[in-house]
Amino acid sequence: MTAAERSEQVLTAAVQAFAESGYAATKTDDIARRAGVSQPYVIRLFGTKQQLFVAALNKVCGRIEEVFRATELDPNDDVEDKLCTLGKSFDVFLAERELPLVLLHGVAGSSDPVIGEHTRDRFGRIYRLIEELSGADTHRTRTFVATGMLLTIMTAMQVAGPDAIAVPWAQEVLVDIEGSNNPAS
After folding, report:
1. For residue 185, what pLDDT band results from cuts at 50, 70 and 90?
2. pLDDT per residue as tens digits for the range 125-176
3. Is the separation of the CB atoms in 64 and 103 below 8 Å?
4. What phi and psi, each to the nearest 5 degrees, are found at residue 126?
């Protein structure tokens, strides 16, 4: 295995571990064990646990951006249709459970100056990407992102997404979102 492949293997293990346990509770030993490498090797690759978390957050946010960029938008559609099409991309985002969880752990860890700086930057890039792809104004982009974050939180609570636990209030919210004909409107 090349160094780049080994680094990617460690980063994938880190995304899984941080998604499960969060930043504070995840140990680099756990990540090393998942990746099949030594803990000193993880540190040699990424420096600190903080730097590894930032790399994991960047990987997750990059995947989120990739999902939105891969969405086939018709340039002739109006803003609402483009947002609706982008909203359907949330199914991919939410099905890859590590994505919303690591994003939420990044938000929760934002009191750490380094993590906070990276989380704000990456979240802002996602916001601007949605704005750019859809042509939506600030209000519509904010509404789209707010609904997306609600779905993200609900997925983290396991009341939305592929393996959702049926809870009446969550079902009501999901029906309302689906009824608006836009998963993120």
Report:
1. very low
2. 999 999 999 999 999 999 999 999 999 999 889 998 878 899 999 999 999 9
3. yes
4. -65, -45
Of 152, 94, 95, 96, whose CA–CA distance to 123 is shortest? Answer: 152
Q: Which residues contact 148 (CB under 8 A, 6 or more apart)?
A: 87, 90, 93, 184
CB atoms within 10 A of CB 141: 20
Q: What is the pLDDT of residue 17?
A: 97
pLDDT, mean over the chain? 93
d(CA 23, CA 77): 41
The H-or-E segment that residue 81 falls in is helix 79-88
- Give the CA count within 13 Å in the CB-facing half-sphere of 138: 0
Instruction: Give me the amino acid identity at 4.
Output: A
Tokens found for residue 115 = 């993590």
User: Residue 36 in contact with residue 27, Cβ under 8 Å?
Assistant: no
Buried b (16+ CB within 10 A) or exposed e, 94-113: bebbbbbbbbbbbbebbebe
| Cα–Cα distance, 138 to 132 (Å, whole number) | 11
CA distance 175 to 179: 6
